[in-house]
Amino acid sequence: MDTKPASKPATNRLEQNGLFVRGVAISNTALKITKKDGGILALVKHELALEPGTIVLQQFIDPKDNPQISIEGDQVTRFPKLELYKPYMAKVGRMEEIRGQQTATSWEAIV
Question: Is 13-110 CATH 2.60.120.10?
Answer without folding.
Answer: no
